[in-house]
Amino acid sequence: MRIAVYPGSFDPITLGHLNIIERASAMVDELYVGVLTNQAKRPLFTAKERVEMIEESAARLSNVTVRTFDGLTIDFARNCKAQYIVRGLRAITDFEYELQLAQTNRIMAPEIDTMFLTTELKYAYLSSSTVKEVASFGGEIGYFLTPQVARRVYEKYPEAVNRKEAKEASHEQN
Ligand code: ADP
Q: SS3 breakdown of the chain: % helix, strand, coil, rounded to 5?
């Protein structure tokens, strides 16, 4: 059995994450998406909400399971009996940080390898934090998220959504 974990904050899951999940799940028998519950990052969504959004988005992928975890990724990988850690690479800016993580993990757990998947170009500049920033100013986030996830993000910024709707209504009148 080839088993992989894909760890991250997923606050919230974007189409870039989903693309990595789809491609990684086609390469292994089981893929465990690990939602980091570390509160120090002050996430917008609770771990439960983040798990639900990933489950909804990846519902048609039968070999994908979503779990929460805290602590070291290698311990999560060992708990899942995984041989691989999947990470997504967007731009060169991701590279140094990811390389450092992968090298550290290799020293601590030489039996587990890190697999990097390069993002599809259209998602190369997409991050959960950008999406939250755009939403907080009432911008359009439908290009970056599934409709269900976009709805949940807007629910977190009701005032920004009111402003967005007012702007759209005044555009229609003109
Ligand atoms: P973390 O807090 O670990 O950075 P993220 O949820 O931001 O967690 O990302 C998890 C993984 O997904 C990381 O490997 C990250 O590089 C990758 N990733 C994030 N956004 C994208 C994207 N748009 N395309 C491809 N990979 C991505």
A: 50, 20, 30
